[in-house]
Amino acid sequence: MPPVVRNFGTHRDGSTVEAARISAHGPTIEVMTHGASLMRLEPDGGRSLVLGFETYQDYLDRGRHFGAIVGRYANRIGGARAVIGGEVRLLDRNWRGQHLLHGGDDGTGGRNWRIAEAGEDSVALTDHLPDGHMGFPGGLDVRVTYRILPGPVLEIVIEAVTDAPTLCNFAQHGYFNLTGGDSIADHLLTIPAEAYTPVDADLIPTGAVEPVQHTRFDFRQPTRLGAQMARGLLDHNLCLATSRQPCRAVAHLTAPGASHALTICSTEPGLQIYDGTHLGHRGIALEPQLWPDAPNHPGFPDAGLAPGETYRQVTRFVISRPG
Fold first, then answer.
1. What PANTHER family does its record include (predicted)?
2. Are 99 and 91 in contact (CB under 8 A)?
3. 236 an active-site residue?
4. From the candidates 34, 99, 102, 173, which is the catalytic residue?
5. Could you tell me if 291 and 139 are in contact, meaning their C-beta atoms sit under 8 angstroms apart?
């Protein structure tokens, strides 16, 4: 079935926000140019497994970062400061007036990307971040391709190149809810992470890497989210590796009564888990990415990108039946 592209609204810069809908191998997805955001993931043409809204204004008013590709540096950089290319760079302070979050106030999650290609089973979007954007050096060209594969699987490939040394770390910021209920408290989450990065009061990593054992960040066995959320905010990075790996399973999500389960596979060394507190726990964000504040902590994964290199993240959402 050919893609259906529609006008979804007007971006703050005056450009048209488009939404592309494709169906292949069973699932249907819809992606909009604002934030290159995944609006719907329907396994069989029915209810979506990711939260979204019917109108563009709702995304602006209530759905910041919903389903978006956030960057050029996803998550947080403490003090909005990092050494890049041997120079101290001061970045946008859009998190609590002190730190950088998701690439700054004009990060890719709120920008209007362009549809570069749309086919029967895929849609690709591109954006260009100029040199100095949000304080980062280097003009950065980024492309994300959403492709439905047999399985069914939704594959998301993010690629970027730069013309000067910079930082590069993107994440897909969808909120999952497998049942359509008012809370994800009954969802069961499994993550094969042995360690996590503790954070301070501003959710900036302290630099320590600690075992998950005997903590509320231990998801090595299927764990009910409600029990862990009752012990405090979950907005933390779980450590899967110290560098990118071949694409492998990094999380499994299921729920009683759900018609589908979800396995997330990724190349990334970290998985940020956010329990959707500000949404009343209606959805959970599971974001493969580098570790937060990596440029400021020796031993954390390398976030640098140099001219001649290609940043490439592969993340796959594998849809299955429970059991």
1. ALDOSE-1-EPIMERASE, GALACTOSE MUTAROTASE
2. no
3. no
4. 173
5. no
3-state secondary structure the chain: CCCEEEEEEECCCCCEEEEEEEECCCCEEEEECECCEEEEEECCCCCCCECCCCCHHHHHHHCCCCCEEECCECCEEHHHEEEECCEEEECCCCECCCEEECCCCCCHHHCECEEEEECCCEEEEEEEECCCHHHCCCCEEEEEEEEEECCCEEEEEEEEEECCCEECECEEECEECCCCCCCCCCCEEECCCCEEECECCCCCECCCCEECCCCCCCCCCCEEHHHHHCCCCCEEEEECCCCCCCCEEEEEEECCCCCCEEEEEECCCEEEEECCHHHCCCCEEEEEECCCCHHHCCCCCCCEECCCCCEEEEEEEEEECCC
pLDDT band at 63 (very low <50, low <70, confident <90, very high): confident
Spans of all domains in the chain: 4-320
Cβ(91)–Cβ(80) below 8 Å: yes
Which one of the listed residues 18, 30, 155, 287 is annotated catalytic?
A: 287
> Tokens 């003009």 sit at which residue?
139
* CATH fold label, 4-320: Beta-galactosidase; Chain A, domain 5 (2.70.98)
pLDDT at 44: 86
Q: Per-residue pLDDT tens for 221-236?
A: 999 999 999 999 999 9
Q: With 90 as the cut, is the pLDDT of residue 1 above it?
A: no
- Residue 120 annotated in active site: no
Q: What is the mean pLDDT of residues 135-164?
A: 98
